[in-house]
Amino acid sequence: MTLKEPEMRPTQIAAIALIAGAIIHAVSGIVGQFVQASTLVSDDLFSYPWTSAELVAVSLIEAFAFGLGLVGFAGLRASGVAGPTRTARTGLGVAVAASALFVVAELASIAVRNQHLDEGAAGAVGGLFGLATLLLGAGLATAGVAARSARLWQTWRPTALLACGLWTLAMLGVVLTPLMPLGVTVMGLLQAAIGIGLLTRSTPVGAKAQPATATPSIALR
Hints:
Elements: H1 10-38, H2 52-79, H3 86-111, H4 120-150, H5 157-174, H6 180-200
């Protein structure tokens, strides 16, 4: 007789996806900071600090990372740990939508990688990144406030959610400085903290564990 291995709940899988995507962001930021320090690429080009070929690879990797984040935030929303309020559900729903927008922006950046920043298409893609950043930050910050009020997610976890949202909003300014890549690293580390929080506490306080057969919904109801 063999013991059956316990199945991972969908929320735990979503947490692992969020952590994996966050690690990619963090590593990408560190690498980007080193590349920026020695690049010969003009800062007027959209691909800066990457070469054209490098940007294709970076954009595909980052699109994948944001896709993982989408899965993670959808699982976080479905778990109910941020609270039962409309504010919590809406905030995390906006974060899911923003992650999808980031995927689109990363893929679109491949098409404009050789353009100058002041060209129309490149400017539009840059605006898409800005909108996605604003929505992700606002969504996570709103959910963080709701989670702190609901007190269904123990200890440091709601604060990590709020901090990630606030830092993502701060990235709208950081992106204009030479420290932008390291700013992405900080954002990745904060997202990893959220993922760890979800992995270690995947159900609200006092709630029963989510059945292994359940699947997280990304419906924005």
